[in-house]
Amino acid sequence: MLARAVGTFPEGPHWRYEPKWDGYRAIAERDGGVHLTSRSGRPLAPAFPDVAAAVEAVLPPGTAVDGEIVRWSTEGRLDFSALQRRGRASAAARRAAGTEPCHYIAFDLLRADGAELADRPLDERRRFLEELMLRVSEPAVMLGWQTGAPDVARQWFEQMRRVGVEGLVAKDGRGRYRPGRRDWLKYKHRVTTEAIVGGVIGEPGDPRELVVGRRDSQTGALRVAGRTGEIAPAHRGELAALLRPSGGDHPWPRRLPARWGSARGDYARVVPEVVVEIAPDAAASAGRWRHAVGYVRCRSDLAPADVPTDLSVEG
């Protein structure tokens, strides 16, 4: 299940509200062994052995849970940058687990005692999940908050921002679990979305700005969609470690029109495999964002196939 962005607070008797945790979405399954799987199907247990061990210790066989892997800083804030360091440190994962331990927040129950629950209403799945979590004593696995009270949800929206919660997710209490469907709603402090990096202004080893693209929903071709503002020096090293210069096989020309910044003479193409989170405004025409988009962060937990098409902000 995925969420689509909305600009107004959703209200109604059937909405259930949850914090939008700033982490890695992961399905946790216990069936013989334990499996942690990202929303793009990537196994996460090698990078998060501490979370996998905690999940294995508390989930009975035949259980599948949907949730989020998060990292709390020493100041009590959600720390996505530290989480990404963990996600890239599979070779030294056990050492990283000792210095930057992570937690798993469970918010949906998909299977219990081997019985599939996806066709049960959310309210029923939640009740089963709460009963399961009552037996959990492992502090690294916790039950995500949920409320049906709009006033409480609004308080969460305002107060939990200080600890790094992005906003709220609203779910229909009558709803079934439908993988890939965007039936949930996300109400965030700012609207962000994802894009694929196809080029840089500067060098791949020192990207000053990014040229980002989106797949065309009709043809599947990667189109130039926009350009970021200047990347802060603190973020350039992280991007440089991920960006790879492209060879001759690239969907974009060697030189882009001047409006994309290539007039400066230092545009370089990169392999279109890195996903970044951006904050565009509403100004768009001819399939591109007209103004420079804000760079938010790298999303190494996502694959290019996870990025919305055209200029959609659904994510």
UniProtKB/TrEMBL annotation:
Pfam families: DNA_ligase_A_M. It catalyses: ATP + (deoxyribonucleotide)n-3'-hydroxyl + 5'-phospho-(deoxyribonucleotide)m = (deoxyribonucleotide)n+m + AMP + diphosphate. It comes from the Bacteria. InterPro entries: ATP-dep_DNA_ligase (IPR050191), DNA_ligase_ATP-dep_cent (IPR012310), NA-bd_OB-fold (IPR012340). One of its GO terms (biological process) is DNA repair. Residues 104-231 form the ATP-dependent DNA ligase family profile domain. SUPFAM superfamilies: DNA ligase/mRNA capping enzyme, catalytic domain (SSF56091). GO terms for molecular function: ATP binding; DNA ligase (ATP) activity. PROSITE patterns: DNA_LIGASE_A3. Keywords: Ligase. PANTHER family: DNA LIGASE 1 (PTHR45674:SF4), DNA LIGASE 1/3 FAMILY MEMBER (PTHR45674). Belongs to the ATP-dependent DNA ligase family. This is ATP-dependent DNA ligase.
